[in-house]
Amino acid sequence: MAERTISWGPRASNKLIGSETTRIDGLDKASGFAKYTADMNQAGTLYARLLTCKHGHAKITRLNVDAAKKIAGVHTVYLFKNEGDECNWDGDIVAAVAAETADLAEDGVRAIEVSFEEQPHVVDEQDLEAARAAEATKEGIVDRTVGDPDKAIAEADVVHEGYYGIHTISHMCLEPHGAHCSWNDGDDGPKLIARHSTQAVSTTGKQFASKFGLDAADVRVVCNFIGGGFGSKFAADEWGWAAAQMSKDTGRPVRLMLDRATELKTPGTRPSGFANVTLAAKKDGTITAWKSHHWGTNGPQGGTIDGNQMPYVFEFENKKVEATGIKTNCGPNRAWRAPNHPQLCAITDTAMTDLAAKLKMDPVDLYKANLGQLDKVAKENGDLYRAQLDRASELMDWKKNFHAHGEGGTGAVKRGLGVALHRWGGQSVKCEAEVRLFEDGAAQVSIGSQDLGTGTRTVIAMVLAETCGLPLEKVTAKIGSSEYVYGNPSGGSITVGSVSGGTRRAALAAVWKLLDKVATKYDVDGSGLTVGDEAVWSGKKKVCSWKDACRLIGSVPITELGESPLDDGLTSKLVGGVQMADVSVDTDTGIVRINRMVAVQDCGLVINQMTAKSQVYGGLIMGIAYALSEERIMDNQTGRYINADMENYRLPRIGDIGELIVEMYQPDSEYNRGVVGLGEPPVISTGAAIANAVANATGVRVPVLPMTPKRVLDALKGGQA
Amino acid sequence: MQEHEQQRHGPGGFNRRDFLKGSSAAVAATAIVTAEQEALAQKKGSAPVQGPGKVDVTLTVNGKQHKLSVEPRTTLLDALRDQLNLTGCKDDFDTTSCSGSDTIIIDGKAVYASTRLAIEVQGQQIQTVESLRNGNNIDEVLSGFVKHDAMQCGFCTPGFVMATRAFLNQKPKATLKEIQDGLGGNICRCGTYKGITACALEIVKGGA
């Protein structure tokens, strides 16, 4: 710091950065003191409930809300659709009713006279021929050939052909999407306050503003805590507008939260993908060709997973990739933690493990044999995979425990190991941080950011405290309101980098101003001053305490704005990771149990080891969910999403996750490249690793995730036939 | 995993079957009250029906009595959250089942607040998560959740805290397996089970 360059301090000098630090808002979250959108009990609040379509595809032939409006306690009805409009999926929202209590709003919903005329629907996303027969496909949305895959396949030592797939899942935020809106008639403050469950505190305000003809400055978006988003909560959304409109109409605050079923059906899903894959290789494992055709759905739009990144992580010399989208009467997709990547991985890394089995090779060795063929993005992050594969192998005791394909034991319960790898971007984006130092010694950072669970408040507090040489409890960190300076929407694993870079820059600038004042007052060389241990130092000599220094600030606080991203080394991009699974498969019941998961993950400079590791644990557990139990189940007959509740949308419980071993890969080279985002990558390769472990245990590929007992038993039957 | 019904074994636990039994017990209890009321009502010559309008209830929450006016259909969850502003029990807005984010303790047992009506828990001791934090007096489960980072978004966390508190009260010497079974009635979407398990294990071993 003495040289006054923008940088992180030497690694060894850090007191807080890189430590395991508990969340500064942890006690508020755990004790229920933290207030989420639906926790705002503003006096006079009206509660809203929704009428939704109960058909896969239908036309509204009658819609009359008069009876609903006549119910005592019902104040207003907002129409999402009108007579004659079509509903394109089960759960498409028709109307909202706001009343004195939620129960009365529900009475209002029931009193709405509505009739639907059913239309033909398509909800099967797996049966390509059926979709073609129903003319629901969009053919050739990707059709790309590089080199001569057919020739390479003809000349290969070994060719593997396989079928793989991964079903649609919902975001299943435990706090549903929704908003609590109120209008302010006074001259002061914003006209509309939207307490909105959002991943984008600084950018949703303008969506409310434009809808209601307000200046963006007249809308304040507040989200101090958000109960899960996972990529689905970026927009104001029509239900946000509905809450605001109903509040405007009634002069009362309105709380509109989606009910659980609608939450699962409407505000986002992760697209499905099913693929026929052909891989060709030399005897030594060098892959010479990839061919794939995949299909699936992202809902009414008719897309599937991104074919431009197929195969995943690798760029083979010869390849042909084709994709077909299916237009379905299923809820639309939204970004789901690492969009496309888990699906691409579940298709690529499974096929690679099956190829390894055919080559009688250890899949870890197959990866190593092909590290010269990484795609452009993975290559740019350097050859970290070799070291990560080795480290993960040590943690899993892979060499000792790995056995040949299908040799998982003679009893009914077979045990096996699987591996997969992933990459991600995680580069910082436009973001600002405001740091203020006050004459009483207070230090504060504020950003119009949000905390999806990564620990944003804690991260920026740690950076500010480290930079000021203060203990963590002596700084304050404010996020969660659009009144603060611009924070990036949290999507793409970009937040920790963006906010910590901005905070560091602002804090350094503020501290330097403070040191200038100290230099003048105490007649020392300002450029030689540093802060630490709540004091200002000139070399090893204490000049004054932090408090004494801050007294020099006077009544006008030092205020500095730090911007992100800048090319000054505080942040960078690209991460990689390797995951391994150890599973037991009961071949009588089809039940797969996780024994152990290993994750080795790089993400540059780690600000907080504790919350970073928590992200990886969380990724593993979400991965276990979509690998083994979690899926949207559509009923072909009715076109409905039939498991849209907490009981039947199966998520792992606390006893279902086995032992989780997480290691952040962080040699000094990682520290030196600055902060890179981490939120999404740890969820990517979990599914493929578990699927590969099941195949290794049983010798049979369960082709489609999630590997429910039925799918396991079906595969075992087919495999033994 | 599919076959593993959410279960809470042991004295403080319940599984779905016990839960249904519990519900019928609650119905039976209501029936007894109703029979008494009926007898009383017959004396007075009026019908014993409660509602559909608002009725007065008294709830004992965190040791204090609260007089409320609720519709008979009002859930305990809505009464606690919307009327008493005790929003630590989180509403996941499911009408058929529950993630456990609304777990509270009634007469020593972990209960989903959305599965009880406000009118049926009068006279019972209701404890919400807010009671575990009084100024600097912090329950070891709360401090343990913080210490082990047993949270991400935090939405399921207070419910998990209450499930853990109730479970450990009943099973202070629980094994890992018992902890896993005993806390199987709550769901976390972010994936914080490792920290929760570590917290419970540490308390069992005698030091948070």
Q: What would the keywords be for this entry?
A:
A: 721 residues, alpha+beta, Aldehyde Oxidoreductase, domain 4, Aldehyde Oxidoreductase, domain 3, seven-stranded mixed beta sheet, six-stranded mixed beta sheet, B: 208 residues, DNA polymerase, domain 1, five-stranded mixed beta sheet, 7 strands, elongated, disordered N terminus
Per DSSP E runs of 2 or more residues, the count of β-strands of chain B stands at 7
Task: Look at the structure and give the CATH class of the largest domain in chain A.
Answer: Alpha Beta
Oligomer: heterodimer
Query: Uncertain runs of chain A with pLDDT below 50, 5 residues or more?
Result: none
Low-confidence stretches of chain B: 1-34
- Averaged pLDDT of chain A: 97
The CATH architecture assignment of the domain at 132-204 in chain B turns out to be Orthogonal Bundle
Q: What name does CATH use for the topology of the largest domain in chain A?
A: Aldehyde Oxidoreductase, domain 4
Number of helices of chain A: 20
The total count of strands of chain A amounts to 31
Largest sheet features of chain B: 5 strands, mixed
Highest-level CATH class of the domain at 132-204 in chain B: Mainly Alpha
Task: Using the CA coordinates, give the radius of gyration of chain B.
Answer: 18 Å
CA-based gyration radius of chain A: 28 Å
Which percent bin holds the helix content of chain B?
25-40%
CATH superfamily of the domain at 132-204 in chain B: [2Fe-2S]-binding domain
Can you describe what's shown?
The complex is a heterodimer of chains A (721) and B (208). Chain A is of the alpha+beta class and 721 residues long. Chain A folds into 3 domains: 11-30 and 428-564, Aldehyde oxidase/xanthine dehydrogenase, molybdopterin binding domain (Aldehyde Oxidoreductase, domain 4), CATH 3.30.365.10; 37-119 and 177-257, Alpha-Beta Complex (Aldehyde Oxidoreductase, domain 3); 269-426 and 572-720, Aldehyde oxidase/xanthine dehydrogenase, molybdopterin binding domain (Aldehyde Oxidoreductase, domain 4, 2-Layer Sandwich), CATH 3.30.365.10. Chain A is 28% helix and 26% strand. In chain A, strands 3-5-1-13-10-11-12 form a 7-stranded mixed beta sheet. In chain A, a hairpin with a 5-residue loop joins strand 19 and strand 20. Chain A starts with 25 loop residues before the first helix and ends with a helix. The mean pLDDT of chain A is 97. In chain B, strands 2-1-5-3-4 form a 5-stranded mixed beta sheet, with helices on both faces. A two-stranded antiparallel ribbon of chain B has the order 6-7. Chain B has a domain at 132-204: [2Fe-2S]-binding domain (DNA polymerase, domain 1, Orthogonal Bundle). Chain B is an alpha+beta fold. Chain B is elongated and about 50 Å long. In chain B, helix 3 crosses helix 6. Chain B is built from 6 helices and 7 strands; from the N terminus they run αββαβββββαααα. At the A-B interface, helix 1, helix 8 and helix 17 of A face helix 2, helix 3, helix 4, helix 5 and helix 6 of B.
